[in-house]
Design a protein that fits this description.
- This protein is mainly α.
- It has one domain.
- It contains nine helices and no strands.
- It is globular, with a radius of gyration of 18 Å.
- The two termini are 20 Å apart.
Length: 267
Amino acid sequence: MWTQTSPILLALAGTLVTFAATTLGSSFVFFFRGEINQKMQRVFLGFAAGVMIAASVWSLLIPAIEMAEEQGMTGWIPAAGGFAIGGLFLFALDHLIPHQHPGSDKPEGIHAHLGKRSMLFLAVTLHNIPEGLAVGLAFAIAAGSGGNAVTLASAVALAIGIALQNIPEGAAISLPLRQEGLSRGKAFMWGTLSGAVEPIAAVIGVLLIGSITGIMPWLLAFAAGAMIYVVVEELIPEAHLGEHSHSGTAGVMVGFIIMMILDVALG
């Protein structure tokens, strides 16, 4: 029975679903001869942004506030504090880890003698850290809820939502790598490996919960802040939503609605 399952195993199970979705997206390199149509790419990026915004609110911030209040704390303090720390953490990683986003000619982070292929790989890997942490925390809550089916359903909903937006993310790394000259097999391999950080981040989140009592609301809000940073800093600019892109905007709306429905209906 799942209630006797280790929180770490549950977190790994959840993030293996999202990891499989990244692998599926990476496999697009075998079916597309060139780049994905720009309009379709905007839809994919917008969809990912919508999912992450909704997940940050319904799956992370609202549970963080409720959990803090149950522990006798003022709900908004860990929610706001953790959110800010999560954003600052991604801001620091963004300026420390050398990476380069698809479609950009300018690398970011500290100067390093890395090829463009490695920089593209690191860019997507960086985005997967808060996603893995969020899914891992959700399943850790489910494991510690004493068999509450609602919390398990909420964790499953979050995993499904993140998995859906991981499909275009996998394609976003494998297809540009193919354009850079890698074989289809190697581009697929690197795209798949970019999602491997999610199970790692999930396990780290579960271990932190086990060693520090009362930190769960802060960690949930931390994951939300990190995901919103990714949305605002990377996904929205890459979707060119400031250029009256109706396709990108529609993607955001659809992604938000689907994630909201998953969380509310299942959770």
